[in-house]
Write a structure and sequence with these properties.
Layout lengths: L1 H12 L3 H34 L7 H26 L2 H22 L4 H29 L1
């Protein structure tokens, strides 16, 4: 989700519009999702080899990772495509990140407020950096 938001922010800052967000956003989203799924598959397969007593399913883990990555990454891309508004995209993205932070706090020992703030701040920082790079690249082009 953060990478998708960064692509939207940089494209908007560079004045590239929804066509670029659509092409680069979807290409990056599915390429990254596949890469993450392969990494998850390999990690779980290795864990299965090292811990034969545990019942692990590498293929299912990889598919779940792919689907989760795509589902979350669609939020900023689709929001921007539908609204052409970086503010709307940022609002939906930060909200979705905070929901992920809340879910993370629910399954870990991380306090809820810390998890909410951490995900929101890191996502906003990535978007801000990408926006700045997009503006700089646009001014140099």
């Amino acid at each position: 989700m953060i990478t998708s938001f960064a692509i939207v922010a940089a494209s908007d800052a560079g004045g590239l519009g929804t066509r670029t967000v659509t092409i680069v956003g979807f290409a990056s989203l599915f390429g990254d999702a596949f890469s993450m799924a392969i990494s998850e598959f390999l990690a779980v397969r290795t864990d299965s080899t090292l811990n034969p007593d545990r019942r692990l399913y590498p293929v299912i883990s990889g598919i779940n990772c792919f689907l989760a990555f795509v589902s979350c990454g669609l939020v900023p891309i689709l929001t921007y495509i539908m609204t052409a508004s970086l503010l709307s995209c940022a609002s939906f993205s930060v909200t979705a990140l905070m929901l992920l932070g809340a879910a993370r706090a629910g399954v870990s020992s991380t306090p809820l407020l810390a998890s909410l703030l951490e995900t929101a701040i890191l996502g906003a920082a990535a978007g801000g950096i990408a926006y700045g790079v997009g503006m700089l690249a646009h001014s140099l082009a």
